[in-house]
Amino acid sequence: MSEIKLIEVKQSIFAENDQAADELRKYLKEAKTFMVNLMSSPGAGKTTTLVRTIEMLKDEMKIGVMEADIDAMVDAERIAATGAKSIQLHTGGMCHLDADMTRQGLDEFGIAGLDLVVLENVGNLVCPAEFDTGACRNVMILSVPEGDDKPLKYPLMFQVSDLVLINKIDAKCVFDFDDDTAVRRIRERNPKAEVLFISAKTGEGFDKWCDWIRKNVKEWQA
Q1: What confidence tens digit (pLDDT) does each residue in 101-126 have?
Q2: Residue 194, Cβ neighbours under 10 Å: how many?
């Protein structure tokens, strides 16, 4: 396993963030690199989802992952074990990334030749939704054990997400989770949001998720 870089990133001034995000998207467009901002609560399955995704797509495209956490490097180590390019971002106690923090990470990471970069944001359903990271698309994971009421409790997260992955569908026999209710509540917050049901454990639904990535990467690089 190759050595993983550790970058300490610093938050930019909130008022400047939207402009910095737009500039970052221009940079990504010129580089033909599609970046996804992946958000969820802790334990929803972001890293496990990414590991399976990389295994399915690594022969088709060059993939890199930036792991953002307050501390530790365990997720970046899991990604590096797949052979994908990986970097760990420590936020210095901040519960999210903004556009400038993301740019700091990309500058150290280096995106030359990468088709897809996934920014795994800090795990929570509040702060990450408030800051535009400069990503091309926002994706969030809602896991079955969290319940189908989360779109009601954390509306902004669902409003800013282009795609919602409902993960751990293999556990629906254990938890009180209604698919139709979850989708309805998501669409009430964001009528344009796509919704896909997946299991990072079994791989169910991953063909559609990977097709979503393929389609968006192709359109971004056109």
Answers
A1: 899 889 988 999 999 999 999 889 99
A2: 15
Tokens of 81: 């074990």
Tell me the sheet residues that pair with 167: 143
Phi, psi of 12 (to 5 degrees): -90, 170
Rounded CA-CA distance 100/14 in Å is 10
Question: Which of these, 207, 12, 196, lies nearest to 104 by C-alpha position?
Answer: 12
Q: Is 75 in contact with 65 (CB distance < 8 Å)?
A: no
Spatial CA neighbour of 167 closest among 157, 155, 179, 159: 179
Inter-residue contact 68 to 87 (CB < 8 Å): no
Do 99 and 12 form a contact (C-beta atoms < 8 A)? yes
- Are 64 and 165 in contact by the 8 Å Cβ rule? The answer is no
- DSSP string computed for 57-122: HTTTS-EEEEEEESS--HHHHHHHTTT-EEEEEE-TT-SS--HHHHHHHHHHH--TT-SEEEEE--
Task: State both tokens at 150.
Answer: 């989360």
Global pTM?
0.91
Residue identified by tokens 């009528």 is 191
Tokens representing 115 are 């088709």
For tokens 């897809």, the residue is 116
pLDDT single digits (tens) 49-107? 999 999 999 999 999 999 887 666 788 889 999 999 998 887 776 777 889 889 988 99
